[in-house]
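Supplementary Methods S3. Input chains for the assembly prediction are listed below.
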Amino acid sequence: MSTAIDITLLGKSFGPHKVLDDVSLAVLPGELLALLGPSGSGKTTLLRLIAGLDQPDSGAVKFDRDDALRRRPKERNVGFVFQHYALFRHMTVFENIAFSLRIRRAPKDEVRVRVTELLKLIQLESLAGRYPAQLSGGQRQRVALARALASQPRVLLLDEPFGALDAVVRRDLRRWLRQLHEEMNITTLFVTHDQEEAFDLADRVVIMHGGKICQLGTPIEIYSNPADAFVHEFLGESNRIPGRLRDGVFVADAGFVAGTAEAADGAATAYIRPHHVGVTAQPRGEWVVQRVAATGAQARVVCGHHGVVVEAAMTADALLASGLAVGSAVDVAFAGGTLFDQDGKRPVKLTAARPALVTAGL
Amino acid sequence: MAGRVSLILLALAFMALFLVLPLVIVFSEALSSGFFTYVGALNDPNVGSAVLMTLMIAAIAVPANLVFGVLASWCIARFSFVGRDLLITLIDLPFSISPVVAGLLEVLLFGTNGLFGGWLTANNIQIIFALPGMVLATIFVTFPFVARELIPLAQEQGNDEEEAAVTLGASGFQVFWRVSLPKLRWGLLYGVLLCNARAMGEFGAVSVVSGKIYGSTDTLPLAVESLYESYNIQAAFAVASLLAMLALVTLVLKAALEFAHRDELQATRKQKAK
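Predicted C-alpha cells for the full assembly:
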C-alpha cells in the first residue's frame, strides 16, 4: 500500500536533550492521524520537521517517495496550522487567506475566486474585511485553516489546533474539522495532548512519549490493547497492583488473587481500569471502603486492603442501590485488566479469576 | 475626589510650565520686533545654509539608523547567536555617553592628530570640521532610537507569523517584506520620528566636530547658540522657532497618520492586549 508520508529513523536533539529518538512512521494517504502525548514527548517537533521548520539530525522524511528533506519548506507544499493561529495581524481575513496565492503570483481573478470559496467553506464570508484581532478564537482558527488550505497542500499539519479554545468551541470545531476532512480527503496530521480529542477525531492515533512512538493504532485498538504501562496510564485512570504471576495465577503482593493470565512466572504489575473493578457488600469481606464520591452520573468508590488501594467506577444509581458507605466491609473483584512486566512492557491480558480460585488463593 | 482633581491640576500646571510656556516664549520672542524683522532674520544666507545642513544630516543619519535598527531587531528577534546580548547592550551605549564625549571620541579618531588622521590627511579626506564628521556624530547619537523602538516589539511579536509565511511558500526576502516589516511598521514610524527629531536637534556631539564655521558647518541648533552668544537675541529666537516648528510638524504628522489608520491601529492594539 502506498504511503503519503514516510518517516524513517528521524532523530533530533536540542543540546544534550534528545527530543526525537529514531522515530519511524508511515502515514497513509487521506488519513486523519493524531499524534498524542504529554508535553515534551516530541510530537510538535515531529510536526515541525515534516513541515521543514526545523532540520532533523538524522533520518529521512519522504512525501510519496519524494525526499522532503532535500526541499526547502516553501517547496514542500505543506499546510501548517499553529496553536496560536499566527495570523498576519496587519492583513485582513481576505488577505491572510490569499497570502500563499499572492506569493505564487496567482492571477487576481483566481485569487478572488479561491479565497471566496474558502471563506464560504469556513463560513466567514461576512468577515472578509476584518483584521484578526477583531475575531474570536474559533474564527481565527478557521481563518488559519483556510489560509493553510488555500494553495491546496498535499499534507495538512495541525499543531494543537484547538488548544487555546474553550470547551464548547472546541467540540464544534472538532466536528467541523472531521466533516471537512471527509469532504476533502487530505492527509492530515494533528498534534494534541487531549486523549478525547485524538480518539474522537482521528482514524489512527500515535502515542508518543519521551521522543519515541509507544504505539500506533486505531483508537479502539490502543484503548483495549495498550502496548506498555505508560500508554495504559496515559489513556485513563489505572489501578496499579504489584504482584507475582505463578502457574497462570496473578497474586498481588498484598496476598489476594487478582486474576489469571497466560504468561511465564515472575514479578508483574496489574493495570486495571476503575470500571473493571467490581465492589459488592460482604460482611466478611477483606476490603474496606475508604471513600465514596459521586460526581454527577458517575460515582467512585475507593477500597483498601492491606495497603493496596483501588478505585472502582460505577453509576451513581448503582452506588445508591448497593448501600455502600465509608467503612463498609466489601469484596472486590476484577473483570479484566492488563499485566505488564517490571519494565512496563510485554502486556498480557488479565482475566477475571473464578471465585473458587480466589478462595483457594486466600 | 478632591485629591484626584488636585493631582490632575498639578500635572497640567507642570506641563504648562515646562512644555507649553517655553514653546509660547520661543514664538513670542521671535516675533517681538515684528513679523518683517522675523522674516528678515530667517532670510539671512547663513540661516539658509544652517537649514540645509540640518536637513542634509538628518537625510543621511535617519535612513542609516533606520536600516540598522530594522536589521538589528530582525536578527535579535529571529535568531540566537553568539554576541546577541552584547549587541543589545551596545545599542544602548550612545544613550549612556554624553554627546560631547561622543564628539570628542570622533576628533580623537578622525582629527588631524587622531588615530586615522595621518591616513585621512594623506588621502585628502576631511571628516572633522566638515559634513561627514557631523553626520557620523549624529548617527552615533541617534543610533538607539529606531533599534530601541523595534527590538522589544519584534521580540514580543515573536516568530510565529514568519514561520507561517514560510510554510505558505514565502522566501526569506518575501517573509521580510510582506510580514516582518509590515507588522513592525508602527514601531518603525515612532522610531523614525524620534530619531529625526533628535538628529535635527542634536547639539553637543555636532558642536564638537563641526568647528562652528558660521555659514558653512552650522546646523540650526548651532546657529541658535552662535546668534545668542553674539547678542542677536531676536534672530536666535527666530531660528529656534524654526526648530520648534519642525517638532510641531512631526507631531501633527504622527497624529494624522494615526488618524488615517485608526481602524487598523485599534485592531492591532486589541490583539496586543490579548
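The radius of gyration of chain B is 22 Å. Residues 45-78 of chain B form the longest helix (34 residues).
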